[in-house]
């Protein structure tokens, strides 16, 4: 599964506007997307409003689905 981040970039090791990222899984407990970000590590991000957890007033952005699985996991998580 793959998503494109659209929004304000944040941090050298986080998310960059327009970049495509691999989604490792949808976390069943938090509902977050486990995304391999610019750090090369996987972190949980909100499916509806990804932004840095340490900066709650950051404007963040949104995800565009690039590649979903056969069950539509990303579509369900992002679009509801």
Describe the 3D structure.
The structure is a single chain. The chain is mainly beta and 80 residues long. Strands 4-3-2-1-5 form a five-stranded antiparallel beta sheet, covered by helices on one side. Helix content is 9%, strand content 35%. It is globular, with a radius of gyration of 11 Å. It is built from one helix and five strands; from the N terminus they run βββββα. The model has no long low-confidence stretch (mean pLDDT 93). The protein has one helix at residues 73-79; strands at residues 2-7, 20-26, 33-36, 42-45, 61-67. β3 and β4 (42-45) form a beta hairpin.
Strand content: 35-45%
Question: Strand order across the biggest sheet?
Answer: 4-3-2-1-5
What is the alpha-carbon Rg in Å?
Answer: 11 Å
Count of individual helical segments: 1
Task: Name a few traits of the molecule.
9% helix, mainly beta, 80 residues, 5 strands
Structure, briefly:
The chain is mainly beta and 80 residues long. The chain has one helix at residues 73-79, and strands at residues 2-7, 20-26, 33-36, 42-45, 61-67.
What is the strand and helix layout of this fold?
Layout: E1 2-7, E2 20-26, E3 33-36, E4 42-45, E5 61-67, H1 73-79
